C-alpha cells in the first residue's frame, strides 16, 4: 500500500511539473482557430497540395480500416493546390501545420517543429506511414524535386510549388530515384 | 470436475500458454475484457480477498499510467478531445490506451495465478519428461536455496557473536563480509560432497534411470485438454482470417462481427473463465457435501 | 552364511602415516543388530564406509570384504547399490530433492523401477513409518528427526538386506534420537534386516544391540555380546571409552565381570542389580563444609548484579507466529556455569540469541551486568563482554588454516602481529590445539572443531560465554574435556551459559540448571536438586538410584554411595 501511494505522489508531481514547464493545452476550437493572411498582390507565396493517389492504386495493401471513402478521397486529393502566404522563417513543416489546422486535416508528427528540433511527419489525414505496406509513407516535393531533408529543415522561397505525396514504395512510385544510404 | 490446479501439469501449461498468447496478441476490447475478468475472478477464487485487492490497486495504477501515456504518443483518431503541444489527444488513442492497460493487467493477473498453480514440483515434473538429469539439477537447486540462505545467516551471526565484525572499519567489514561469503562457499562445497556421496550410495551412476511422475494423466485431463485445443483452433482460425480484427484508428470499428468472430469470442470467454468456473464449482460442491455431514 | 565378512581389513588414507584400520576381522550373521563404538578417530566411520563399495574412501586397502559370500569387487553393480543401504550422520546433507516424495523416489529411479512400482513402495514405507502426511511437503520444512527418518525411508525403499548407519542420531535431539533407534530395532525385529550402526549414544543403543564391537585406534579390541563388554574393561580399567558406556555398565561392569555375570545394560536391569548387591544405609552423600558452599542457595545474601538477566521477556519471530518466550525471566550469577534444558522447539536457542543481543525481545529486556543489550554496541558487546558458540561450529571459521583463522580475529581487533601470535599460541596450548594449527578447520574432527571454535571465542577474553549445544555428536572423552575447560573458565570468573539437551553432561558440568517450558523458565537449581526431583527427564544414574539413594544424579555420586555402603557392610 505504501508503495502505491508513493507512485501516485510521483505521478502527480510529474504531471504538475509537465504542466508548469511549458505544456500547451488547447481545446479543439482553439486549435482550429488558425488565421490565414489574405493573399496580397505583393505577398510572397507558395502553393501546396497533398495527394495520396498511390494509396488508391495499392488498395490491397491498404490497412482495412482505411478502405472506405470516408478516409480515402476518391480522387486522391487530400488538399488541393492552394496558395499560402509565406511567412518569415516558414519551413515546409510549418506550412503544412498551418494548412492542416486551417483545413481541419488530421496529421501527426514526431518531434518538435520549432526551436531547432526536427519534425517528422508520420501521417496526414489518417493515412500513416506503413498504412499501405512496409514501404509506405509521406514525402514532399518542391518544384518537382525531392529535397531529401526533413520538412522542418527546408525553407521554401517565394513561388515554390510544394507537393506532399504518399508513396507506397519508398518513393519510387512518385518519381524519387534516391537510392538511400 | 476438479479444481483447476489439480489437473495434469501438461494441461495447465497448455492452458496458460494459450491464455497468455491470446491476451497479448489479440488487441480486441472484448477479448481483453474477457481475459481480465477470467484472470481476476480466478485470483479472487483462490487467494485471500485482501491480497487480491491490494494487487488490484497496483493494476489500477499501472492502468492509469498506460492509459494516459498512449494518447501522448499516438495522435491518430477522428475524435480529438483537446490538443497538446500541437497534436491531438484523441478519444481513439485514449481507448486504445485503456485496452492496452487492461491487457497488461490481465497478463499480470494470469501470471499471478500461474505462480500459485504451476508449482515448482509441476515444472520439475514437466522438465523431467524432457530430461531427468535436468530435473534433478533444478530440484537440487530448489532444495539448496533456502538452505544456503539460512546458512549464510548463521555464518553472519556466528561471526558477529564471536566478535568478528565488531571493531572493524567499514572497509574491514566489507572484507569480512567477503570472507563470510567464501566460508559459505566452502561450506556448500562440503555439503555438496556429502550429498554427492549420498547420491552415489543410492546408485546415481547406474544406467537406465527412470523418472518418478507423481502426476497421472486421466480422462478428465484429456477432456480439458481437448477443450483447450479446440478453443485454440477456433481462435487461431479467426485470427488468421482476420475475423477478430478490431480497428481503433482512425475510427473505432463498430460493425457487427461475423459468425466466426462470434464463435471465437464465445470460445475465448469460456476459455478465460474456465479456472474460475472450476474453482467456484468445486467450492459449491463441497459446501453441498458438507451440509450432508 | 554370514551376510557380511571382513577378513583382516587394513586401510590407510593417502598421505597418512598411520593405518586407519588394522587387521579388522568381523563376521555378521543375517538379522544381527550390531553396534560399533569407539572414540573419534578410532576408525568406526572408515570401517563402515569400506563395507559399501560405492562410498568406500580412497586409499590403500588390504584384506577382504564379502557380502553374502561374494567379494565386494565382484558384486554386480545393482546388487551393491540396492543390497546395502547407508544412512549418514548429517540429516541435511544426504537429501537431494526438494520434496519428500521425490527424495523417496530417488534411489528407485536409479534402479530403473517403473512408476507403478515406485508409487507402491512409497505408499508402503510411508505407511509403515507413519509419515504419510509428510509426503507432499518440502524438505527444508522438516525437523531434524523427520529428515533423518526420511533418509532411512529413502534407503529402505530400495529393499536392502543390510543396513549401515554412521552415527545417525548424532545431530538429533534426544527424543528424535530415541524415536530413530526404536524404529531401527523395530525394523530389525519385524523384518530381519541386518543392522550395523556406529554410535556414541550407547545408553540407548546397547540395550537393543545383539553385538558390540569396540574400536580403538583402528583395531577391533572387543567383539561380542554387549553384556560381556565389561570384561574387556578389566584389562583396561581407565580406558577413555569407558565413559561412553551406558551408566549401568559403568557402575556395575566390574562387579558383573568379577562374578561372571552378564552386566546390566538398561536402567531397569541396573536398578535390580543395585538393589540386590548394595545396601542403602548410607542414603545420600553428606557434603562437608567445603562442598556446601557450592550450593548457591546458601550464598550469603549478596545482592550482586546478575551477570546475565532476562526480565519478563516476550519474543516471537514474526508478527503472526506464536510467542516463543512468554514473560520469561532468568538470573545468572557471575562465575557460574548455568545450563538451560528443555523440550523441542526453538525456545532455548532463541533465549541464547536474546542474551547475546542478536535478536531483540519485543517486550521486556535482557541485561548483561546490569546493562541492557539494546544499549550495548557491537564492538563492546561482542568479544569483550560476551562471545557465543553456535550449534554448528563450522560457521565460525572464515580462513583456510586454523592458525590464520584465530590470528585473524585479533588482527582485526587492532592488535599487532606479535601480540596476536602470542595470544593465539597461549589459548591454543590451553586447549591442546597447537598440533592442528596448519589444518583447514573443516578437516578437523567434530570435537576438534568444537574446541577450535571455543578457542576463537575466548581470544578476546569475554566475560560471558554462551554455548549452544556444545556436545552435539561428540564422544564422552570430549565431553569430559569440555567439562574441565568450563570449570577452568568459571574458576577464573567467566560466566558460562549452556543450552543443551545433554542431560548427563549438564548434570556433571553445570552449577545450576533450569528448564524451558511453555515460554518460561523454572527457577534455577543445582543439578542434585533439579534432577532428583524429576523421574523421567533426568540422568540414567538418577533413574537407577532413585528410591534407593537420594540426590545421586551423577555416576560419580552413585559410585561413591556404592563405596560407602560397601564399607558400611564390611564394618
Describe the structure.
The complex is a heterotrimer of chains A (181), B (293) and C (571). Chain A has helices spanning 2-20, 28-32, 53-57, 92-103, and strands at 25-27, 45-51, 77-85, 107-111, 119-124, 127-128, 137-142, 161-167. By secondary structure, chain A is an alpha+beta fold. In chain A, strand 5 and strand 6 form a beta hairpin. In chain B, helix 5 packs across helix 6. Chain C has three domains: 4-224, Rossmann fold (3-Layer(aba) Sandwich), CATH 3.40.50.300; 290-396 and 458-562, Rossmann fold (3-Layer(aba) Sandwich), CATH 3.40.50.300; 397-457, no CATH class. The longest helix of chain C has 18 residues, at 174-191. Chain C is globular, with a radius of gyration of 25 Å. At the B-C interface, helix 5, helix 6 and helix 7 of B face helix 2, helix 3, helix 4, helix 13 and strand 16 of C. Strand 1 of chain A pairs antiparallel with strand 1 of chain B.
Average residue pLDDT of chain A: 81
Largest sheet of chain C: 6 strands, mixed
Q: What is the top-level CATH class of chain A?
A: Mainly Beta
Question: Which parts of chain C are unreliable, with pLDDT below 50 for 5 consecutive residues or more?
Answer: 288-302
Percentage of residues in helical conformation of chain C? 25-40%
Radius of gyration of chain A: 19 Å
Q: Largest beta sheet of chain C: what is the strand line-up?
A: 6-7-8-3-9-10
Spell out the CATH superfamily of the largest domain in chain C: P-loop containing nucleotide triphosphate hydrolases
Q: Label the CATH architecture of chain A.
A: Beta Complex
Order of helices and strands of chain A: HEHEHEHEEEEE
List the helices and strands and how they pair.
The complex is a heterotrimer of chains A (about 180), B (about 290) and C (about 575).
Chain A: H1 2-20, E1 25-27, H2 28-32, E2 45-51, H3 53-57, E3 77-85, H4 92-103, E4 107-111, E5 119-124, E6 127-128, E7 137-142, E8 161-167
Parallel strand pairs in A: 2-8
Antiparallel strand pairs in A: 2-3, 4-5, 5-6, 7-8
Chain B: H1 9-25, H2 29-46, H3 49-73, E1 80-84, E2 87-90, H4 91-117, H5 120-130, H6 132-161, H7 170-201, H8 219-240, H9 259-292
Antiparallel strand pairs in B: 1-2
Helix pairs in contact in B: 1-4, 1-8, 2-4, 2-9, 3-4, 5-6, 6-7, 8-9
Chain C: E1 4-12, E2 21-28, E3 33-38, H1 44-50, E4 60-67, E5 70-71, H2 77-83, E6 84-87, H3 100-110, H4 115-129, H5 144-156, E7 162-166, H6 174-191, E8 194-198, H7 202-205, E9 211-216, E10 219-224, H8 229-235, H9 247-259, H10 267-277, H11 289-292, E11 308-315, E12 325-332, E13 337-342, H12 347-355, E14 363-368, E15 371-372, H13 378-381, E16 386-389, H14 402-412, H15 417-431, H16 446-458, E17 464-468, H17 476-491, E18 495-499, H18 503-509, E19 512-517, E20 520-521, H19 527-533, H20 540-545, H21 555-570
Parallel strand pairs in C: 3-8, 3-9, 6-7, 7-8, 13-18, 13-19, 16-17, 17-18
Antiparallel strand pairs in C: 1-2, 1-4, 4-5, 9-10, 11-12, 11-14, 14-15, 19-20
Helix pairs in contact in C: 3-5, 5-6, 8-9, 9-10, 14-15, 15-16
Amino acid at each position: 500500500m505504501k508503495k502505491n501511494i508513493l507512485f501516485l505522489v510521483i505521478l502527480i508531481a510529474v504531471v504538475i511539473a509537465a504542466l508548469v514547464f511549458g505544456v500547451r493545452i488547447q481545446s479543439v476550437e482553439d486549435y482550429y482557430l488558425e488565421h490565414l493572411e489574405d493573399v496580397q498582390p505583393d505577398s510572397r507565396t507558395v502553393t501546396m497540395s497533398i495527394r495520396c493517389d498511390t494509396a488508391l492504386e495499392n488498395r490491397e495493401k491498404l490497412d482495412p480500416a482505411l478502405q472506405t471513402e470516408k478516409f480515402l478521397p476518391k480522387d486522391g486529393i487530400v488538399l488541393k493546390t492552394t496558395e499560402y502566404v509565406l511567412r518569415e522563417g516558414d519551413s515546409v513543416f510549418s506550412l503544412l501545420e498551418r494548412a492542416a489546422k486551417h483545413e481541419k486535416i488530421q496529421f501527426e508528427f514526431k518531434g518538435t517543429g520549432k526551436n531547432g528540433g526536427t519534425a517528422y511527419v508520420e501521417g496526414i489525414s489518417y493515412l500513416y506511414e506503413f498504412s499501405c505496406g512496409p514501404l509506405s509513407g509521406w514525402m514532399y516535393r518542391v518544384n518537382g524535386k525531392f529535397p531529401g531533408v526533413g520538412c522542418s529543415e527546408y525553407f521554401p522561397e517565394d513561388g515554390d510549388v510544394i507537393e506532399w505525396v504518399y508513396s507506397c514504395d519508398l518513393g519510387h512510385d512518385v518519381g524519387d530515384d534516391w537510392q538511400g544510404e | 470436475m476438479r479444481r483447476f490446479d489439480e489437473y495434469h501439469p501438461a494441461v495447465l501449461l497448455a492452458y496458460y500458454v494459450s491464455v497468455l498468447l491470446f491476451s497479448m496478441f489479440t488487441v480486441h476490447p472484448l477479448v481483453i475484457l474477457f481475459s481480465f475478468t477470467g484472470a481476476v475472478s480466478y485470483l479472487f477464487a483462490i487467494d485471500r480477498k485482501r491480497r487480491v485487492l491490494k494487487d488490484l490497486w497496483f493494476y489500477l495504477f499501472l492502468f492509469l499510467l498506460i492509459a494516459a501515456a498512449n494518447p501522448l504518443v499516438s495522435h491518430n483518431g477522428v475524435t480529438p478531445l483537446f490538443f497538446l503541444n500541437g497534436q491531438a489527444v484523441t478519444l481513439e488513442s485514449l481507448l486504445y490506451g485503456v485496452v492496452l492497460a487492461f491487457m497488461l493487467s490481465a497478463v499480470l493477473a494470469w501470471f499471478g495465478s500461474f505462480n500459485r498453480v504451476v508449482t515448482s514440483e509441476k515444472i520439475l515434473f514437466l522438465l523431467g519428461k524432457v530430461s531427468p538429469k535436468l530435473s534433478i539439477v533444478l530440484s537440487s537447486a530448489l532444495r539448496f536455496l533456502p538452505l544456503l540462505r539460512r546458512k549464510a545467516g548463521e555464518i553472519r551471526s556466528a561471526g558477529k557473536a564471536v566478535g568478528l565484525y565488531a571493531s572493524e572499519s567499514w572497509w574491514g567489514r566489507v572484507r569480512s563480509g567477503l570472507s563470510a561469503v567464501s566460508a559459505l562457499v566452502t561450506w556448500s562445497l562440503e555439503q555438496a560432497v556429502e550429498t554427492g556421496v549420498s547420491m552415489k550410495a543410492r546408485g546415481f551412476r547406474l544406467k537406465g534411470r527412470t523418472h518418478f511422475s507423481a502426476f497421472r494423466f486421466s480422462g478428465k485431463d484429456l477432456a480439458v485438454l481437448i477443450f483447450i485445443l479446440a478453443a485454440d483452433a477456433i481462435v487461431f482460425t479467426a485470427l488468421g482470417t482476420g475475423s477478430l480484427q478490431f480497428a481503433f484508428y482512425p475510427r473505432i470499428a463498430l460493425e457487427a462481427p461475423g459468425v466466426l468472430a462470434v464463435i471465437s469470442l464465445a470460445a475465448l470467454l469460456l476459455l478465460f473463465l474456465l479456472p474460475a468456473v472450476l474453482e467456484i464449482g468445486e467450492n459449491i460442491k463441497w459446501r453441498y457435501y458438507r451440509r450432508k455431514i | 552364511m554370514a551376510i557380511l565378512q571382513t577378513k583382516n581389513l587394513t586401510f590407510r588414507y593417502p598421505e597418512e602415516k598411520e593405518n586407519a584400520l588394522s587387521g579388522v576381522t568381523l563376521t555378521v550373521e543375517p538379522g544381527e543388530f550390531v553396534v560399533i563404538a569407539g572414540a573419534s578417530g578410532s576408525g568406526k566411520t572408515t570401517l563402515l564406509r569400506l563395507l559399501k563399495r560405492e562410498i568406500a574412501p580412497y586409499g590403500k586397502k588390504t584384506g577382504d570384504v564379502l557380502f553374502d559370500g561374494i567379494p565386494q569387487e565382484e558384486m554386480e553393480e545393482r546388487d551393491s547399490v540396492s543390497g546395502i543401504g547407508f544412512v549418514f550422520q548429517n540429516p541435511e546433507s544426504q537429501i537431494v530433492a526438494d520434496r519428500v516424495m521425490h527424495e523417496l523416489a530417488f534411489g528407485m529411479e536409479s534402479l530403473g523401477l517403473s512408476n507403478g512400482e515406485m508409487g507402491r513402495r512409497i505408499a508402503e514405507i510411508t505407511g509403515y513409518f507413519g509419515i504419510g502426511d509428510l509426503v507432499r511437503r518440502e524438505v527444508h520444512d522438516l525437523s531434524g528427526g523427520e529428515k533423518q527418518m526420511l533418509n532411512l525411508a529413502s534407503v529402505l525403499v530400495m529393499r536392502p538386506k543390510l543396513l549401515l548407519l554412521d552415527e545417525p542420531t548424532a545431530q538429533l535431539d534426544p527424543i528424535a534420537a530415541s524415536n530413530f533407534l526404536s524404529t531401527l530395532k523395530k525394523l530389525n525385529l519385524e523384518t530381519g534386516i541386518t543392522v550395523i550402526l556406529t554410535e556414541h549414544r550407547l545408553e540407548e543403543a546397547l540395550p537393543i544391540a545383539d553385538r558390540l564391537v569396540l574400536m580403538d585406534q583402528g583395531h577391533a579390541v572387543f567383539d561380542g555380546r554387549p553384556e560381556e563388554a565389561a570384561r574387556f574393561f578389566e584389562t583396561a580399567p581407565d580406558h577413555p571409552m569407558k565413559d561412553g558406556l551406558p551408566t549401568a555398565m559403568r557402575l556395575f561392569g566390574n562387579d558383573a565381570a568379577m562374578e561372571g555375570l552378564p552386566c546390566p545394560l538398561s536402567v531397569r536391569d541396573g536398578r535390580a542389580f543395585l538393589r540386590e548387591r548394595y545396601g542403602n544405609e548410607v542414603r545420600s552423600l553428606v557434603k562437608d563444609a567445603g562442598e556446601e558452599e557450592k550450593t548457591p542457595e546458601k550464598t550469603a545474601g549478596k545482592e550482586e548484579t546478575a551477570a546475565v538477566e532476562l526480565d519478563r521477556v516476550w519474543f516471537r519471530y514474526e508478527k503472526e507466529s506464536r510467542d516463543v518466550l512468554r514473560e520469561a525471566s532468568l538470573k545468572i550469577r557471575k562465575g557460574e556455569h548455568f545450563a538451560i534444558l528443555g523440550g523441542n522447539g526453538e525456545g532455548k536457542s532463541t533465549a541464547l540469541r536474546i542474551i547475546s543481543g542478536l535478536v531483540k525481545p519485543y517486550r521486556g529486556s535482557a541485561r548483561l551486568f546490569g546493562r541492557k543489550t539494546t544499549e550495548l554496541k557491537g564492538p563492546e558487546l561482542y568479544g569483550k563482554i560476551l562471545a557465543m558458540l553456535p550449534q554448528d561450529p563450522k560457521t565460525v571459521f572464515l580462513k583456510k588454516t586454523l592458525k590464520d583463522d584465530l590470528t585473524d580475529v585479533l588482527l582485526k581487533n587492532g592488535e599487532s602481529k606479535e601480540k596476536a601470535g602470542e595470544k593465539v599460541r597461549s589459548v591454543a596450548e590451553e586447549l591442546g590445539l597447537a598440533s592442528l594449527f596448519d589444518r583447514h578447520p573443516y578437516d578437523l574432527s567434530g570435537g576438534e572443531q568444537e574446541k577450535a571454535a571455543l578457542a576463537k571465542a575466548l581470544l578476546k577474553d569475554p566475560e560471558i560465554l554462551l554455548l549452544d549445544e556444545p556436545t552435539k555428536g561428540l564422544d564422552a572423552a570430549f565431553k569430559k574435556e569440555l567439562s574441565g575447560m568450563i570449570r577452568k573458565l568459571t574458576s577464573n570468573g567467566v560466566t558460562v551459559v549452556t543450552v543443551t539437551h545433554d542431560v548427563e553432561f549438564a548434570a556433571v558440568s553445570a552449577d545450576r540448571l533450569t528448564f524451558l517450558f511453555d515460554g518460561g523458565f523454572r527457577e534455577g537449581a543445582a543439578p542434585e536438586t533439579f534432577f532428583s526431583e524429576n523421574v523421567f527427564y533426568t540422568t540414567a544414574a538418577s533413574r537407577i538410584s532413585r528410591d534407593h539413594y537420594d540426590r545421586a544424579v551423577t555416576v560419580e555420586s552413585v559410585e561413591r554411595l556404592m563405596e560407602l555402603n560397601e564399607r558400611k557392610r564390611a564394618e
